[in-house]
Structures
1.
Amino acid sequence: QVQLVESGGGLVQAGGSLRVSCSASGSYFSSYAMGWFRQAPGKEREFVAAISWSGSTKYYSDSVKGRFTISRDNAKNTVYLQMNSLKPEDTAVYYCAADPENAYCGGRACGAHEYDYWGQGTQVTVSS
């Protein structure tokens, strides 16, 4: 069982930056692919970014590419999402997720169904 705890959310003005973190329990974090998803009110959960177990492969949604950066520190069992140039449409609850199987999804980011473990989420609100 893997427990994920997100932190770092908050309120920021448009154009600002925020870094959210996800700390994982257990001894096998370094072997898991990790992802960030978000869900805005009234909308479905959507993919934001993902990173392979080694950190060598990263995926981003088109809506955040060039603004957000995913990274991980396996020594600290933590994955990060650095968010720059934030827009009001980035407002959502941000969830991290773990994929212990490192599913291969045809060279593209895997969908939410490939992730087995989820955190409780952290709210990010961007004011205009």
2.
Amino acid sequence: QVQLVESGGGLVQAGGSLRLSCEASGRVFSSYAMGWFRQAPGKEREFVAASTRSGGNTYFADSVKGRFTISRDNAKNTIYLQMNSLKPEDTAVYYCAAPIWTGEAQPSAYYSDYEYDYWGQGTQVTVSS
């Protein structure tokens, strides 16, 4: 079992930055991948970014490439999402997630929310124009 707690959301103007954090507990953090997803009102949940367990490989949705970065500190059991050049369309509730599987997977697995079994409570990000 994994518990995930996000923090760092808030209200920011377009062009601004935010850093989200997600602290995990319950399993050896360095043994599993982590992902970030988001859900805007009236829309389906979508993939944002993911990291392999070591942080050596990262994956991003096309909509955030070049603006967002994902990193992890395995010593602190924490994964981060640095969001720069924010746009109003980035407004959503952001969730961190962890899969039940450990180790590595095919790249396609990191993009699908079906691969993730544990979810945080979400943190609201609002970008004003």
3.
Amino acid sequence: QPHLVESGGGLVQPGGSLRLSCVASGFTLDSYAVGWFRQAPGKEREGIQCMSTSGSISTVVDSVKGRFTVSRDNAKNAVYLQMDSLKPEDTAVYYCAASIRRGLTTVQAMCMTGKFNYWGQGTQVTVSS
């Protein structure tokens, strides 16, 4: 059974850093596009960054450019999100997702629409002093 488990969330002060991890089981990530999403209280879930199987990154939220970086380690069947210079507005539940890219669909489009097949349970990130 495909499964994704996130970890690494927590409470951090503004300006601090966190590294989220997402480990897959039941399938191998190297054939899947992967992505990170977040949902803040009272808001809809939004895509942040996604990565293709070739390593191409699509960032769909302008506010994280230059601060967040997605990466993958296929040997560990894992995906990561390095988050630097964190701001209170980054507070949210963060989710990783994985999906096969099909047809002409781009990873950027998948990231913007959230059309991924497999999702983790989420990890809370709170940025506060």
